[in-house]
Amino acid sequence: MAHPTHAMAACFRVRLTCEVTERSRLLAGAAEISRRLSSDADHLYIHQVCTHWRASTSPLVVYRPWVVSGRARRRGLIPTGDYSLHLPRRGAQRMEVGAPPAGFLYCYGTSWGWLSLVDDDRCPTRLVLWEPLSNTEIALPCPSPLTRIFLSDDPLVLSNWIAIATQLKGLIGQKTLLWRPGDADWTMMYEEGTFEIDTIAFLEGKAYYIDVQRNVVICDLNTGTDPSADPSPKCTRIYNVCSVVKRLCRCDRLHLVRGPPTACNGELLLEVFRLGSHPSLAEVYKIQWTLDLHVELHERVMDSLFVG
Predict the structure, then answer these.
(1) Cα separations in angstroms, 217 against 149, 205, 209, 277
(2) N or C, which terminus of the chain has less Cβ within 10 Å?
(3) How far apart are CA 176 and CA 199, in angstroms?
């Protein structure tokens, strides 16, 4: 793998299984990719694994990233329950860290190296963020039901970080909630709901996510802070982004969006495959929020590398 000039966003998506042989093979592959990354500006995503590394993690940072692995569940909306930590270093041996907080047995997110732990996988009543290397704990109000927790930034680095929770809405939908440090409770972020949400990207004060039906939702986290107004942030939505891409491309081939939006070099990029040829051609589009609260999709030059 050649080292690109620009910061590389490497996407390596897998589904973990409970079989030891398959898990060992997965971690070995993650180790090989991690060893080839040239700097901390490069990002390696392994499902819901942390994407950035603090200077305080040295000397472990040279073996980034560590991997949270667990048993696969039948229901796609429920994150892994039993978990273990590994460093992708010479075989990805298990990493010995401090014990998690007592009574918090279920992991509902791994943003920025923090594990979002709850006390029950069906009706949680307590929620805590736990950073294994420093053994730091942050208690949050616990929304119930709960499907996933995402963090905008590392709480040990920035004080104005934001947490986003996803909840079931109906049988297959999900809605999002917002929490800022000091809030007494969660605020509704986008109540209209989408299909299942796998990943949320944060860039310049906005949250971006795409559901399994390829609907893109963008929320301006800088709004909703006025105590005299609606506390929910302003959100906008692109329905079926694949059809928007097809109009921009102006061809008759099927366009398949692969994975969530990726923040790279101050821009938010969307990777699209144009089917009908071998190999499939990859296109990268830039998602841009305009001043009139509309969302535009722009085609851009392919100067970022997506692996996976």
Answers:
(1) 17, 14, 6, 30
(2) N
(3) 12
Cβ contact 13:47 at 8 Å: yes
Q: Is 128 within the bounds of a domain?
A: no
Domain enclosing residue 221, as ranges: 201-308
| Each residue's pLDDT tens digit, 119-177 | 988 889 999 999 887 888 999 999 988 888 999 999 998 899 999 999 888 777 788 89
- Per-residue pLDDT, 169: 80
* CA dist., res. 301 & res. 181, Å (int): 39
DSSP H or E run through 245: helix 241-249
- In the chain, what is the greatest distance between 2 CA atoms, to the nearest angstrom? 57
Q: Are the CB atoms for 163 and 169 separated by under 8 Å?
A: no
Is residue 254 in a domain? yes
Q: Is the pTM of this model over 0.85?
A: no
Task: Indicate whether 177 belongs to any domain.
Answer: no
State the first-to-last Cα distance of the chain, in angstroms, to the nearest integer: 12
* The 3-state secondary structure of 4-32, one letter per residue: CCCCCEEECCCCCCCCHHHHHHHHHHHHH
- The alpha carbon torsion through 143, 147, 153, 155 (nearest 10 deg) reads 50
Structure tokens at 155: 């709480």
